Structures are given as C-alpha cells and as structure tokens.
Amino acid sequence: MAVCLTGCSKICPARLVCPFRQPSPRRLASQLQAPRPPTAPKQFPDLKRIRQNVDIYSKNCVDRNYGGHADFPAEIARLGRESQLVAADIPELSKKIKELQREIATANASQTSSNSSSQRTAIATEEAATLRDALGELETRKASYDATAHELALALPNLTNSETPLTGGPQLISYIGHEPGQVVPSQSHTSHVDIGTSLSILDFNSATLSTGWGFYFLINEGALLEQALVQYALSMVLRQGWTAVAPPSVVYSYIADACGFQPRDQNDERQIWQIQQAEKDALKPKRSLAATAEIPLAAMYAGKDIPEEQLPLKLVGSSRCYRAEAGARGVDTKGLYRVHEFTKVEMFAWTDSTDDSQDTERSMPVFNEMLQIQREIFSSLGLPCRILEMPSSDLGASAVRKVDIEVLFPSRMSRDEGWGEVTSLSICTDYQSRRLGTRTLQKSGKRGKFPHTVNGTAMAVPRVLAAILEHGWREEERCVIIPEVLRPYMGGQEKIQRKRKDKHFHS
Prior knowledge:
CATH topology of the largest domain: BirA Bifunctional Protein, domain 2
Number of strands: 17
EC number: 6.1.1.11
Strand content: 15-25%
CATH architecture of the largest domain: 2-Layer Sandwich
Pfam families: Seryl_tRNA_N, tRNA-synt_2b
Oligomer: single chain
Protein name: serine--tRNA ligase
Structural class: alpha+beta
Shape: elongated
Helix content: 25-40%
Keywords: Aminoacyl-tRNA synthetase, ATP-binding, Ligase, Nucleotide-binding
Number of domains: 2
GO molecular function: ATP binding; serine-tRNA ligase activity
Strand order of the largest sheet: 1-10-11-12-14-9-8-4
Radius of gyration: 29 Å
Mean pLDDT: 85
C-alpha cells in the first residue's frame, strides 16, 4: 500500500493516485492498470457480496495469511457508501443543467433582445457552466470510489470452504500403499541425486554451468522416464473422457494474476518470472512464464461464454512449468524436489454453479473424479502416499479448498518425516472465472452465472521421477526397478542399470 501524497488516511492500492486528485474518469482508468490489449477480459469481483459480509471477508484474510488485506473489506464497504451518496446527487445536478440549457435555448430563440433578457441568459450560462464543473467533479469522485473498491476486491483471496481446517497443520485423510508407522528399509535411504548420477541419467553439474541452480539434464533412461510418466498420466486421464490440450508456456501477466498467481506472494517472495521486454515494447502488456498449465488452460475461455450443456468442461494439458522458488523454500533443497523448470500434466475443469457462488455442490463431483484419478496413478506406481486436507494458511489466493498428495521420500526422512508434496487439487469456485470474464451461456441464449473452476495435478514429473528412483533402487544390483505400468512406454524395459560403456554422459 502507498502513502497518500495528500496526507489523508484513505486506503489506496499502490498504483492509484488519491481519489480526490483524479482529473477525469478516463485518466483514472488508464492509471488503474498496466497496458492491456483491447481483447483483455473484463473482471467482475463480487463487490455486493463483500459489502454484505465485511466481517467474514476480513477474518478470511487473517485465516489465509493475508493480514495486510484485512482492512480491505471495510474500506470496500465505505467506498460503496460514498459512491452511493455521490451518485444520489448526480441526477439532481443533471436535471438542473438540462433546465438551464432549455432556458438558454429558449432565450436565444426569442426575438427579444432587451438588456434584462441578455443578462438572464448570461447568468444562466454561467450557472450551467458552474454546475457542469460540479457534475464533472462528482462523476470523477464516483469513478474513483468505484475503481478503488474494484481494485481492493481483486486483491482479496477467495473465501474458505467448511472442509478446510482454519488452524493447525494439514489433516490426514488417508494413505495409499502405506501403513501408519511403517518403517522404510534403511537400504533405500539413498538420495535420487546419488542414484541418478551413478546411473548416468541425471546431470546437475552441467546444468549449473549452462543455466544455474535449480536446473538439470535428464539423460538416457532419465529422459525416457520423463516421457513415460507424461504419457501414462495422460492415458489415465483421457480414458475418463477428458480433452487433451497442449498449451503455451508464455502468458500475459494479467492472466496469471487473474488466476491467483501474483508476481510476488503476500510475503513478497517472487512466484513467477516475468519476461523482460525491449524498451520499444515498454507500453505493451507484460508477459510471464507460466508457473503451471492451469493458467493458459483457464485463459482458453477468458472473455468467453461456455454453453451450459457442455459443463463440466474438462481439459488435461502437459506443459513445461517455470517457478522462481525464491526465499527459504528453495535454498536448502537439493536435487529434483524443488526446481525452476519442469514438466507437469495438469487437469483443469469448469463446472456449473448454484445461485450461491460459494456453494461447491456442483463442482464436487469433478473434484472427486480428479482425486480418484490421482489415487489410481500413485497406487499403480507403487509409491507410498498420504492424502491431506490442507489448512487455510496453505491455500493460494484462488482456492477455497485444497487437497494434497504427498509421497514418502526415503532420503528426506530428516525433513518432514520424509513426506513431500507431489500433487495438489483445488476448488476455486468463481474466483478465476470472475477475473477472466468467463460465463455460462444458457440454452435461451442468455448469459448465465460464472462457472466454477477446479484444477489438479496429474503428474509433476521431477518429484515423481525422484520418488521412483529412491523406491526402485536396489543397492545390491545397482539398478532401479521401473514400475510395471511404465514399462510399455519404455519399450518393455524393466530396470535401469548403468551401461558399462558410457562414453558420452558422465558426472
């Protein structure tokens, strides 16, 4: 938030000028946002709901680690009241101006040209000019109030589902292929970094020289295993009737922002990478590298209507993803667990909604379908997992509910008891569709409600690949057993062993 230059105590987004110093609604609109193409979707935050539930939204900000935003709902309500007061004065002023304009027109049309008549016309003209200035000021103030409230509303996180814990850590839902208290054999505690390096399928040193920390080369069976995981995950999702999409990995930054991926999070840590533009392109909309296929998939229907008979509309896309991973999250992590670039298969769906925009009744069937697909994938890979209901403090801006699956990594037993996230699954209600201008289209041709969006990971390749290496490692044979379901995608190969003559790749 910026300190107001006029010295007032109003809450204003950092890129806004004080509402009382705006010269015109048109200039205000240009100052509210970075340059956007004319095709950019219009955003529709639910201002009415926020104004009617100030305490709920304020508490939700605190629950979601958005403490700095907790005053926004009250300010939105105040701005709404101010806007209404100003709006109430506008019709009366407009009426007086029109009356004066008619009086002036009548006088000008009259043949009478006495001094008194001319004097009355001059007075009416001056009064009309004064009223027009006052009207312009009121319209500017109203536009400023509305625009500021609009911006504050867009900065708020989504509300939180009743299934989501508000305090404490994640809550265990169930296990997959694992029993509570089950001990991982000590022989399998070798890190995937050591395993992959010894088998010449991972090369971090070359990547450090070519690109830097957080990047890697997959070689030989490592590269093939990545493709096998992608193809297997796609096959598991497609057999449920989903539509395959190959999305771009570059998006407009305002699209990423609308999906809930701000360039920096509430702790001011960078989330996504923006693409530097040439000076000649400084006024063009900025672009970012997509952190997940969720962003370009959501944008497929930005500013569009989805016929209600097509809902739920379910897409699955494989893409390269880019994460800044700044701060403490990435510094102490070695190997494939936390990297800057990776391949991921993402599920994304739009579902119908009820009159209550936060009611998840119609999006739950797709949510459960996604979770079942995730269960089947990791069960068939033979990896020990646990399914967690994530607390409100762990939810991003867009989700009302999030369920994660974590795999037990033998080499990470000293950290988080070995558990590491490999998938997430979120219901976002109408948060994204409101910000992307996506609506349902009724059979009558009338535009309907904002659909709900649901997204979930089908396969985050590096982490799953790392888990396969650690659980499939056989110390005595110095090999990795390939999960049976992946072998058809690797030419029937059953294990990964270091080739005796490996002249080209070594670490």
